[in-house]
Design brief:
With about 220 residues, this protein is an alpha+beta fold. It is about 30% helix and about 30% strand. A four-stranded antiparallel β-sheet has the order 1-3-7-6, with no helix packed on it. Strands 5-4-8-9 form a four-stranded antiparallel β-sheet. It has a three-stranded mixed β-sheet with strand order 2-10-11, with no helix packed on it. Strand 10 and strand 11 form a beta hairpin.
């Protein structure tokens, strides 16, 4: 096991180090177990230590590490660049925690330590056909404050009143136009037709009558 002082000192040497890769979510199966895979990108050097932590807020607890015999409910299997942790007997409290992997490699007499981004657990359900699926947590939307509810109701009422007013105006306009059209049909306008020009016979008769009157 690497001394704690060395691990802390050489965390700062990440320019010569590596990256720890772990998934954001890991599945919890119906038998209350989960598999957390931790992988590092170090191309050279020996794996001096690997660890799995549980995180709750600012509290970080060591669950298991290389060579430890006190890993309660945690088993592991390690290879050159990857370590797989098996968590069993997962309860409701464990579902609320985050899990973080950590590796310490040695190269040229120096030790380098890197940690991954914490992961969460999600429950896997199996349907009657044997297919597994995940249930995402439901997000509860908070009810709007009373003032916002009142303002929303007021805007709805204003919208209804405006719609009613527009509809009434439209019906009134249509009724007025209909009544005017009906009055035009019942009371037609008389247009006097212009008479045609007088004929020559009428002009002659008028001149003759005028002469006789003078005599």
């Amino acid at each position: 096991m690497v001394p704690f002082i060395l691990r802390v000192v050489f965390i700062a040497h990440m320019s010569h180090g590596f990256v720890v890769i772990q998934s954001l979510l890991y599945n919890v199966y119906p038998n209350q177990s989960a598999i957390i895979g931790c992988e590092h990108t170090g191309q050279s050097g020996n794996v001096e230590d690997f660890r799995l932590y549980s995180i709750s807020g600012n509290n970080k607890k060591l669950l298991c590490q290389k060579g430890s015999s006190n890993c309660a409910n945690v088993f592991y299997q390690a290879s050159l660049n990857k370590t797989v942790f098996l968590l069993v007997n997962i309860g409701e409290e464990a579902m609320q925690l985050s899990y973080q992997c950590e590796f310490t490699l040695s190269h040229g007499g120096l030790f380098y330590t890197a940690t991954g981004k914490p992961s969460k657990l999600q429950v896997i359900h199996v349907d009657e056909a044997g297919k597994s699926y995940t249930l995402l947590p439901k997000t509860q939307t908070a009810a709007p404050p009373p003032n916002e509810q009142i303002s929303v109701l007021m805007w709805i009422l204003i919208g209804l009143l405006l719609s009613t007013l527009l509809y009434s105006s439209f019906v009134t306009c249509c009724y007025i136009r209909l009544m005017r059209s009906k009055q035009d049909i019942e009371n037609p306008t008389y247009v006097e037709m212009r008479k045609g020009p007088p004929s020559l016979n009428n002009i002659y008769d008028n001149l003759r009558l005028g002469a006789a009157t003078v005599l």
